[in-house]
Amino acid sequence: MTSAVGGWQDTELRGFREAQRLGYECAEAVAARLRPGVTEREAARMQREWLRERGVRDWFHLPFAWFGDRTAFVGFRVPLQFFPTNRRLEPGMPFILDLAPVFKGYPADVGYAGCLGPDALHERLLTDLREHRELILREVRERRSLREIYADVDRLMARQGYANRHRAYPFGVIAHRVDRVRERRWSPRLFGFGTQSLKGLASDAVRGHREGWSPLWSPHRFSDHPPRPGLWAVEPHLGFRGTGVKFEELLVVTDSRDPEESAFWLDDDLPHVRRWNEEVS
Asked: What is the pLDDT of residue 279?
């Protein structure tokens, strides 16, 4: 007998959680292998190979890797600049790994920030991300509009002295909805994105347009509505003088009237959460 949390079956949440944990395991494994001279393209390939060896055949999007000031999207003007380059990793350089595998029909979208060697600024940015995770969950439970929450994240970043770098993503999104896809041995891709996941997002966009909501969480008017039940891949991204950090993980939103069941992070056993817990213990 399966139980439900806020309308979600345990089996469904386990599937998404397993996919997300696999993504973070990949990010940690690849981060541990990064050395001076490795390029972004090589780091992205390392992620693809690690996941394929573990059964991943489909993607929400193929892995990205950003090194140095590219972690803060310095000079990014067009979407092609997000794709991995021949930028080489150097000692003391920050990096971000961003990967979105589909595992057993369950997609995840993971962001992992690291640095090749100790760096006080990078550590501070990582620590300051915690307040954003807490703010987002609190205000989603309050059923504030996505647009208002986005503005509050902006204001928090400004108080911390940072720049909002998720605004550089297409449509300036801080999050997007994800949903199950049909499990296949192989799925075609379009510009690095899995066509099954793109079709699902497009279908949500059409339906949402009719019903007054959007699957994209942005600063624009189309996101001026309360959080829609579903799973949201959320990625607040801080930037400061050529250094960028972020996390990306799944937030579960339900239609429950119970505050704790109305919204919750899918998994609290993730690298950035463990790091924060170690800081206060």
From this structure: 86
pLDDT of residue 197: 62
How far is residue 47's CA from residue 35's CA, in Å, rounded to a whole number? 15
Cβ atoms of 141 and 251 closer than 8 Å: no
**What's the 3-state SS for the chain?**
CCCEECCEEHHHHHHHHHHHHHHHHHHHHHHHHCCCCCEHHHHHHHHHHHHHCCCCCEEEEEEEEEEHHHHHCCCCCCHHHHCCCCCECCCCCEEEEEEEEEECCEECCEEEEEECCCCHHHHHHHHHHHHHHHHHHHHHHCCCCHHHHHHHHHHHHHHHCCEECHHHCHHHCCEEEECCCCCCCCCCEECCEEHHHHHHHHHHHHHHHHHCCCCEECCCHHHCCCCCCEEEEECCEEEECCEEEECEEEEEECCCCCHHHHEEECCCCCHHHHHHHHHHC
Contact 147, 217 (CB under 8 A): no
User: Is residue 270 within 8 Å of 249, Cβ to Cβ?
Assistant: yes
So what's the pLDDT on residue 91?
Answer: 97
Please give the pLDDT value at position 182: 81
Q: What is the pLDDT of residue 189?
A: 61
Tokens of 22: 């696999």
Reported pTM:
0.92
- Distance in angstroms between the alpha carbons of the first and the last residue of the chain: 38
Q: What's phi and psi for 144, nearest 5 deg?
A: -70, 160
**Distance of alpha carbon 155 from alpha carbon 219, whole angstroms:** 12
Sequence-separated (6 or more) residues with CB below 8 Å from residue 88: 36, 37, 38, 39, 67
Please identify every stretch of the chain with a pLDDT value under 50, giving residue numbers as ranges: 1-2
